[in-house]
Structure formats: C-alpha cells, structure tokens
C-alpha cells in the first residue's frame, strides 16, 4: 500500500488533505497487528526439464531473502525490504515506495526433484529453477515403418 506522510496537513492544496484523509480511512480498516507486507510479482513457466519461477523484489537485498521447502512440499519464499532512513531530522512530505516483509507460498508438484532446486538473484529478481524427476520428462519413441 502506498503511504503518504505529511508533517503539516495544510501543506499544499486540498489534494493533500484529501489524500491524508483517505490514508486515515485505509489505516483504520487494516488489522493493527498485521505486519507491513510488500507485493511481489511472479512469473511461472514450465519447460521439459524444469519449472521456473521469477519473483520480482526490487530494493530487496539477497541476504534478506530465505527459501525453504516444507515437509508438505510447499516452497516458501520470505524476505524484507528495509526502510531507508534519509536523515533523523528530515521532514518527509511524500512516501510512495513500500517497505516491509513479504512471504509467498507455492505448492511444489510431486514430480519435482526438491534436491535439485537452483536459485539465483540478479537485479532484484529471484530466479528459481526446479528440476523435474527423470521419470516425468517426456520421452520420444521412434516408430519404424515396415
């Protein structure tokens, strides 16, 4: 969710007062105990050899990401985009960037070899390659005509 922080509600035009009021309404409807969550976008595609996941997480450092497989074959990707503090005595007028934690869960099909999952992180995109077990890879059979 975008957040708008104003130190002075009369800062500019009625637009800022309206936006600030709308933010108050949105915040009053949120659960106070729920942590801030950021949105991650995912692309999933399949080849003959593997299933691929590309998860966008701009501004997240690779050391702030964890990847686990549960005993129920659920892939859990967790992370956090930490807030950048510009200065202790700075006045923030507008903040549209999201900060906080995220968690995504994906059911891993039984035909995936969970021992052969490869991960890479480049330019804010986590790429996972989940290799298929040998017995489910397509097999081509040549037919001879007599």
Shape field: elongated
* Oligomer status: single chain
Terminal residue distance: 67 Å
Radius of gyration: 22 Å
In short:
The protein is mainly beta and 146 residues long.
Descriptors for this entry?
elongated; 4-stranded antiparallel β-sheet; 1 helix; disordered N terminus; 146 residues; mainly beta; 3-stranded antiparallel β-sheet
Protein described:
This protein has 146 residues and is mainly β. 11% of the residues lie in helices and 36% in strands. It has one helix and seven strands; from the N terminus they run H-E-E-E-E-E-E-E. The protein has one helix spanning 14-29; strands at 41-46, 50-56, 65-69, 74-81, 100-107, 112-122, 125-132. The strands form two sheets. Strands 1-2-7-6 form a four-stranded antiparallel β-sheet, with no helix packed on it. Strands 3-4-5 form a three-stranded antiparallel β-sheet, with no helix packed on it. The termini are far apart. Mean pLDDT is 77; it is low at 1-11 and 22-34.
Compile the SSE list and pairings.
Layout lengths: L13 H16 L11 E6 L3 E7 L8 E5 L4 E8 L18 E8 L4 E11 L2 E8 L14
Antiparallel strand pairs: 1-2, 2-7, 3-4, 4-5, 6-7
